[in-house]
Design brief:
CATH class of the largest domain: Alpha Beta
Distance between the termini: 37 Å
Strand content: 15-25%
CATH topology of the largest domain: TIM Barrel
Radius of gyration: 23 Å
CATH architecture of the largest domain: Alpha-Beta Barrel
CATH superfamily of the largest domain: Alanine racemase
Shape: elongated
């Protein structure tokens, strides 16, 4: 995104044109940025050619996943629905990893039927369930065991997954027991050690601690793991205050790990691939005087973008038409939903706004539409993909008649 003659553009297409043609709120994705992100990710780790499985939960638009698949990526799924979506998008089953702490009997059966690469189990009960199903089907199922390395990712509490207090994975004692269980089973083949410590990680040091914990465990088990799934969690810059993850140092740590352990690395990136490709275009409905501040009431709300209400996350907001006229008021950008948490950000020294102006909420490609809902019976927004001069509707705006 950039300003051309004070007009905010995406791949040289004016956001105001998009807003007037397709209405608001509207999600808009840049193909160019998506392509850059994928190629950059591959370049950062090209020395050991990992299997990259895009995290479907970060963005569930089938047309986006079709584009991602064309770059040779697989998929990380956490439900039967996500697995069905990945297959519909044409993702190779041999590049699909099924994660999650609560896979049902139905989901495990479906994953086995579709012959996906790995089911990453997260408890003793789950491994036993997979084994029992595989036994009945007279199949040998490739599995991974997710280790909880008790590593603090130094990220938001709500998206931390690698500490002992979190529900994910198993501790080292249980991990050893499950390795032994798998060795004695004729129906599960233990292929992978899986680990994932959190999301929106901007420091390489937690990854280094994670790799050290994984290395120690692998050395003690003396089991030959074909894969080590390092998860994802690589963060993006949502504001100018965010530092960037040092991929060179993370790459170096993995290369040192691979000197000791001859295994194939799997990554499960989501946000780092899709996060900064998406923008939510919105319109100001009303400006309401609140005494100490002015409420900028938008036509987008927490049902369209849940992250600020759910995590206290902050997204940059940009005017679609730029001016040098700065307001003396404090602006609080809010939605129309009947919840006090339905707000995006409070800003000072923003340009002066008026009703019916268009705004762009930035970096919403990950956990934007995938976390959206119909709360207050609000239809979900239209989704657009901009590729050069071409604008494609990749999901139609919901109609109230479909909901009621």
């Amino acid at each position: 995104m950039k300003y051309n003659n004070k007009k905010l553009t995406i791949e040289n297409i004016n956001f105001q044109v998009l807003a007037k043609k397709f209405g608001t709120p509207a999600y808009c994705y840049s193909y160019s940025k998506l392509s850059d992100n994928i190629n950059s990710f591959k370049e950062n780790f090209k020395s050991f050619s990992p299997l990259i499985c895009f995290s479907i939960k970060s963005n569930t638009n089938v047309n986006i996943i079709r584009e991602i698949k064309k770059f040779g990526l697989g998929a990380d799924v956490v439900s039967k629905g996500e697995l069905m979506l990945a297959l519909k998008a044409g993702v190779n089953p041999n590049k699909i990893v099924f994660s999650g702490v609560g896979k049902t009997n139905e989901e495990i059966n479906f994953a086995i039927k579709k012959k996906i690469l790995l089911i990453n189990a997260e408890s003793k009960s789950e491994i036993q369930e997979i084994n029992n199903i595989a036994k009945r089907k007279k199949k040998i199922v490739q599995v991974g065991i997710r280790l909880n390395p008790n590593t603090d990712a130094k990220t938001l509490k709500q998206i931390s997954t690698g500490k002992s207090e979190n529900k994910f994975g198993v501790n080292s004692k249980t991990f050893y027991e499950l390795v032994k269980y798998c060795k004695n089973s004729k129906n599960v083949s233990l292929q992978c050690l899986s680990v994932h410590i959190g999301s929106q990680i901007l420091d390489h040091k937690p990854y280094e601690r994670m790799l050290k914990a994984v290395s120690n465990i692998m050395s003690k088990t003396k089991h030959k793991f074909k894969f080590v799934d390092l998860g994802g969690g690589m963060g993006i810059s949502y504001s100018n205050k965010n530092k960037k993850l040092n991929y060179k140092k993370y790459n170096s740590a993995i290369k040192n790990f691979l000197k000791k352990h001859n295994t194939k690395i799997i990554f499960e990136p989501g946000r780092s691939i899709i996060g900064n490709t998406g923008t939510l275009i919105t319109k100001i409905i009303y400006i309401k005087d609140g005494g100490t501040k002015q409420f900028i009431i938008l036509d987008s709300a927490m049902n369209d973008l849940m992250r600020p209400a759910l995590y206290g996350a902050v997204h940059k907001i940009l005017p679609v038409i730029k001016s040098n006229n700065i307001s003396r008021n404090t602006y609080e950008f809010v939605g129309p939903i009947c919840e006090s948490t339905d707000k995006f950000v409070t800003l000072k020294k923003f340009q002066k706004l008026k009703e019916k102006d268009f705004l762009a909420i930035c970096d919403v490609g990950a956990y934007g539409m995938s976390l959206s809902s119909n709360y207050n019976l609000r239809p979900k927004p239209v989704e657009l993909l901009v590729k050069g001069r071409k604008i494609k509707i990749i999901k139609n705006r919901q109609k109230l008649t479909e909901l009621i």
